[in-house]
Design brief:
about 725 residues; OB fold (Dihydrolipoamide Acetyltransferase, E2P); 5 domains; ten-stranded mixed β-sheet; 7 helices; globular
């Protein structure tokens, strides 16, 4: 994540001006201030402390000590980044050291007078209490939470805090790092993300208040949540709560209308991130983001985003300088790259900031999707003339083959451009458009298709974009017209709340196949047209509120199968066999189940309850190999109360091989942890059963001795659209009978 100084610089300028005015009031010489110097030195980082004493529990309280060494000291240091001067931060001091931030809950007002922003403090936390209050890890006093029947951390006595803290030097505002987030999804919600980003000072770029221009930040002196919480929306349509106390000095200011940048402390309450502004200066003019096609990232900028370990998606511009060499799975140096053309392989490109660059640390490795227009006209094996040409490409900025790279490009002509290369029309090539990309109501052009959303016969309610669900919400009588050559199929992915008022969506030609029905999460039109108009039905005949006026709510539209040309989902890759147990898609009759002991997968402890995965592992005659593959996070195991859960993350793979063919596999899902980021699973052969949010298990059927399963990129769970995960608590394998 980038660090940003402008917010702090503005505060520093204001402080300097105030100091200058004060100095003019007195002509006498003032004695020089004594610069404090701490007598103790830190021996660990804030992140190391948080990891060592972490618990997944929502509330807990632990004393900081080493049971094996009574003399061991735990000492941290950091710069104060919070202030209670403006009334929104209450009895709390937050420090930051570059690795993480940590809040101290202290029973004292006006803490800013003694611990100013930018002041470095050194704290011997040995014997103090660390834990959580409603999910937020902090230092404080151990107290009993009767309703939750658990210990928690609340306000510690001020004298206890004061006795443990030593000031070091004078306050320096420029020592504070304000982290940059392009979207809310840049702040992960897993344990690593919670430890690293709770209590950090973050600047969210290009956001807006859903209630902007209509409400104030809060209600004066209120303590009611609904009156203190406001909804902030990012450029992807995701939302976060901004919480402003009724005692904050700006609580009665009107929420700004339109796009802004917002700076605040990352709070956390009952499984949800919250943003706590320090002052009204946290409302800032927006910084224009790179990443659009018109203003793409350069290669160094994209590499910087990737090295921040946060998810970014956008356009990048550079020059084609090579491809990854054969038999290279992990790019570690320049020798892993073919810097000439033609190359041996056609699956990657190496993109540099200039055409003469031959230093891989300055380059991106771009994945070329199989059987796509991008691979066809872009690869250097078949198109050696592309070497040295400029390229503009869209995708996910991630670590790929253990080096900065670009994945997630669809391979469609709309997501890349190469200097001087004309891309031939590919039969069936389509596109996917998100609801948040559409003009609502109005006309959206996304070549080669045009989308027109209109009020139709409804003179009162025109289509709208719903911020909290990132969906287009259409009302009875509204129309959607889609125009463009070769319309064969159109798939609508419905919003998570579509079922309440779900109704028919009648086309002027073609038909939905299968027909629309109660409980749909998606629906697909099939036909053959250059233009089709859909009209929302009058009553919610397919919804739970079927006597109310109908609505049609969707989050995305996929034209012609997203480029497959068959109007359906991406085909499952064929297995290598012929029905004899070596990869046949025809399910075989399953025998008795074998329950796999997950303890064999448990590797080294990495932090808290998290462990690495042993791989490969052979259990009961079957070999399991987990792989990070094109994902950004290594597969892992979470162990809680003795039970282990395998966590597979977006784009990870799981390969299962055995001497005896497999007819069926049932994966049980840990429903305590695995429903928020639950995602799809695709198979190299056979078939994965229908999946939906809330699943307690996933079932694969087929007939093979060698199966590779790939984890979906995006969640279909309660945190839909975020990077996907599958949490496996049990594996049952059914050999062919």
């Amino acid at each position: 994540m980038k660090k940003f100084k402008s917010y702090i610089a503005a505060l520093a300028a204001a402080t300097a001006l105030t100091a200058g005015l004060s100095a003019c009031q007195d002509d006498v010489d003032a004695p020089a201030s004594t610069v404090p110097e701490a007598g103790i030195e830190a021996n660990m980082t804030i992140l190391e402390l948080k990891e060592k004493f972490w618990s997944d529990d929502k509330n807990y309280a632990d004393s900081i000590y080493d049971p094996n060494d009574a003399n061991k000291r735990f000492i941290i240091k950091g710069h104060v980044i919070s202030s209670d001067k403006e009334g929104n931060i209450f009895k709390s001091i937050v420090i930051q050291d570059g690795t993480a931030a940590l809040a101290f809950s202290v029973d004292q007002y006006n803490l800013y007078t003694s611990y100013r922003r930018g002041q470095e403090i050194v704290v011997d936390v040995t014997g103090m209490t660390i834990g959580k209050y409603a999910g937020l890890q902090q230092m404080g006093h151990k107290s009993w939470y009767a309703n939750g029947k658990s210990w928690q951390v609340s306000f510690m006595p001020y004298q206890e805090f004061k006795s443990k803290v030593e000031l070091n030097g004078m306050p320096k505002l420029n020592t504070i790092d304000t982290l940059i987030a392009n979207t809310f999804s840049d702040i992960p919600n897993d344990n690593d993300g919670l430890r690293k980003y709770q209590s950090q000072l973050v600047r969210f770029k290009n956001v807006y208040f859903a209630e902007g221009g209509q409400q104030n930040f809060s209600v004066y002196h209120t303590k009611v949540n609904e009156e203190q919480n406001r909804t902030l929306v990012d450029r992807e349509g995701n939302t976060r709560i901004v919480r402003t106390s009724g005692y904050a000095t700006w609580c009665e200011k009107r929420l700004p209308a339109g796009v802004i940048d917002l700076v605040g402390i990352m709070g956390y309450y009952n499984d949800s991130w919250q943003i706590m502004m320090l002052d009204y200066e946290g409302v800032m003019d927006p910084v224009e983001l790179p990443g659009s096609k018109e203003k793409p990232y350069d290669v160094p900028g994209a590499i910087s985003e990737i090295n921040s370990n946060l998810t970014v998606n956008g356009w990048v511009k550079g020059y084609i300088v090579g491809a990854v060499a054969p038999e290279v799975e992990s790019v570690t140096g320049n020798s892993d790259i073919e810097w000439t053309a033609p190359t041996v392989l056609a699956s990657t490109l190496v993109v540099a900031p200039d055409p003469s660059c031959k230093e891989i640390s300055e380059c991106l490795v771009v994945q070329l999707p199989a059987d796509s227009p991008f691979r066809m006209v872009g690869n250097l094996r078949d198109n050696p003339g592309n070497l040295g040409k400029s390229i503009l490409v869209k995708g996910d900025f991630v670590k790929f083959m253990d080096t900065p790279g670009i994945t997630g490009n669809s391979g469609k002509t709309s997501e890349f451009e190469i200097e001087g290369v004309d891309v031939p029309t590919v039969e069936g090539t389509g596109l996917t458009i998100l609801a948040t990309e559409m003009t609502v109501p109005g006309t959206t052009d996304k070549s080669p298709y045009t989308f027109v959303l209109d009020g139709g016969s409804n003179s009162k309610n025109a289509p709208v974009i719903h911020a909290s669900t990132s969906a287009v919400r259409m009302y009875a009588g509204n129309t959607l017209t889609i125009s463009g050559a070769g319309l064969k199929s159109i798939k609508f992915t419905l919003s998570k709340d579509a079922g309440f008022r779900y109704t028919t969506f009648t086309p002027t030609s073609g038909a939905f196949d299968p027909a629309q029905a109660v409980g749909d999460t998606e629906c697909t039109w099939k036909g053959d047209a250059e233009s089709v108009t859909f009209t929302v039905g009058d009553l919610a005949t397919l919804g739970s509120e079927n006597t109310q006026k109908g609505q049609f709510r969707f989050v995305s539209i996929e034209i012609n199968g997203g480029g497959e040309g068959d109007g359906g989902d991406t085909p499952t890759p064929p297995g290598p066999g012929d029905g004899d147990g070596d990869g046949d898609d025809t399910p075989a009759e399953p025998g008795e189940a074998i329950t796999i002991d997950l303890d064999s997968f448990k590797g080294e402890n990495t932090s808290g309850n998290m462990y690495s995965l042993n791989s490969p592992v052979t259990v009961d005659g079957y070999t399991f190999t987990t792989n990070k593959a094109s994902g950004s996070t290594e597969p892992a195991m979470n162990v809680y109360q003795g039970a282990g859960t395998i966590r597979l993350y977006a784009n990870n793979t799981l390969n299962i091989k055995g001497d005896k063919a497999i007819a069926k596999i049932v994966f049980s899902i840990n429903t305590s942890t695995g429903l928020k980021r639950y995602t799809t699973m695709t198979a190299s052969s056979g078939k994965v059963g229908e999946q939906a949010s809330g699943d307690e298990s996933i079932t694969w059927t087929g007939n093979t001795t060698d199966l590779t399963l790939t984890i979906g990129a995006q969640s279909i769970g309660s945190e839909a659209g975020k990077p996907g995960q599958i949490h496996i608590s049990k594996i049952e394998i059914y050999p062919v009978k």
